[in-house]
Design brief:
This protein is α+β, with helices and mostly antiparallel strands and 439 residues long. Helix content is 44%, strand content 26%. The chain is elongated.
Length: 439
């Protein structure tokens, strides 16, 4: 049942992505009066469809992709049909190639603007000064000498960064040292820290957590926190007199309690209360050995925000701009061999994420759809000849050279590109299956 649900939600998600992308090509081609032979969702044998005028609108057997078949193509000789793609000026062909990825970018912007114009939970610390609330023992941050209460006043070339800036800089510099400057007791301390990534562990946490109020997100009804009256939405103020300013601070106190009772001060509706909670030892999947728990999941404080249409568009543009930068950084890290290609997610993982996002609710699913749409746009703009980016690159070369590239060269380039993409798909599928078997 879970498998069927995963496939269903993934097909909805990628189906919308494909239709929007190909409509971009279709509308641009129609605008320049290019003859459209077929508009296909999927590849391979035709399953069903309808012919309207000169265009066959069809759904094909292999659902991962789609295409708009125009009269003429990049690797065919020119013919006498004035409506052939190859007989259109190069600048028109370039606009037709760009239109597909552009539609995916617009979709990402529209989806996130729609979410931001409704209520969405905003993590407050992300736009605040990067003050450290907790440091995990033996982590990269601890080994670098970072302490709770330190403020990151510079990371690389970014002065006075927010936590959003810090997270982005960390991801941009995977497996290479990052220069940071801390402010501590009125002094500045320059340090270096390396965000590490391995095939076995993925991106390892640097071990610092932002200074933030800590909220109870969920309570286990079978453990002592619930029995003593703690509820979802309570703020954890302190444990045994020590302030709790990050989720890990709560986890650390409980796990190191040795089962002894803890005095927890919480805040509810502006009023403080105190309870005594006794941890119990329990085995959880993420940790090899049993750990002490009181039965709460701690989360940073969020605020439900509803933006005006104009502000929602601005926020969406900023959000997608940062995401595009992150996608570019990941691709660059893979190209520079600092990040393994195994980090690329394929259709199997996409199906799992689609189902999980659908279970979490409308906001999560739309957010995932926006992210996938942006990823699809950027991937299609890569300078691989069989993709839109490759078509654009070859058109630019021809415009600079003021002549067409030879048909033989185009066929050779397209053949190599096709083999590369097929190999990439096979690698991603294999990698996906390996991840699922290990999970």
């Amino acid at each position: 049942m879970a498998f069927v649900e995963s496939i269903w939600w993934m097909l909805i998600l990628i189906g919308i992505m494909i239709v929007i992308h190909e409509l971009g090509h279709y509308w641009a081609a129609r605008y320049f009066d290019v003859k459209i032979d077929a508009f296909a969702i999927g590849f391979g044998p035709r399953l069903f469809g309808i012919r309207r005028g000169e265009t066959d609108w069809k759904v094909c057997a292999i659902p991962f992709g789609g295409y708009v078949k125009m009269a003429g193509s990049e690797h065919e000789e020119q013919n006498n049909d004035p409506r052939s793609f190859m007989n259109k000026p190069r600048w028109q062909r370039m606009i037709i190639a760009i239109a597909g990825p552009l539609m995916n970018i617009i979709l990402a912007l529209v989806l996130m603007a729609g979410l931001f114009s409704m209520q969405f939970p905003k993590v407050l610390y992300m736009d605040q000064a990067a003050k450290v609330g907790s440091v995990v023992p033996d982590s990269a941050a601890a080994k670098a000498g970072i302490l709770s209460g330190d403020t990151i006043v510079r990371i690389e070339d970014q002065a006075n960064p927010t936590w959003s800036d810090v997270n982005l800089a960390s991801l941009e510099n995977i497996n290479r040292p990052v220069s940071i400057v801390l402010s501590r007791d009125g002094q500045t301390l320059p340090l270096k820290i390396t965000p590490k990534h391995t095939d076995a562990n993925g991106l390892e946490s640097l071990g610092w957590q932002p200074d933030s109020d800590v909220i109870v997100g969920r309570v286990d009804p079978d453990l002592d926190a619930a029995k003593q009256g703690l509820k979802a939405g309570d703020q954890i103020v302190s444990i045994n007199g020590d302030a709790v300013r990050a989720p890990y601070a709560l986890v650390d106190k409980v796990r190191n309690s040795k089962g002894e009772a803890l005095t927890v001060v919480y805040r509810r509706d502006g009023k403080d209360g105190t309870v005594t909670v006794t941890p119990v030892s329990k085995k959880i999947p993420e940790v090899p050995n049993a750990v002490f728990m009181i039965g709460v999941v701690a989360t940073p404080v969020t605020k439900n925000v509803q933006l005006s249409p104009i502000d929602a568009i601005k926020e969406s543009a900023s959000f997608n701009y940062k995401n595009a930068g992150l996608i570019y950084s990941v691709l660059r890290s893979i190209f520079e061999a600092r990040l393994s290609p195994k980090t690329i997610e394929g259709p199997v993982r996409m199906a799992q994420m689609s189902r999980q996002a659908a279970k979490e609710g409308f906001d999560s699913y739309i957010s995932l759809m926006s992210g996938v749409s942006l990823n699809l746009a950027i991937f299609n703009l890569l300078p691989i000849p069989i993709l839109d980016g490759g078509v654009i690159l070859m058109l630019l070369i021809e415009m600079i050279a003021r002549r067409d590239l030879s048909l033989r060269l185009k066929e050779m380039v397209f053949t190599v590109s096709f083999v590369f993409l097929i190999s990439l798909v096979a690698f991603v599928l294999y990698n996906d299956i390996q991840k699922v078997l290990k999970s």
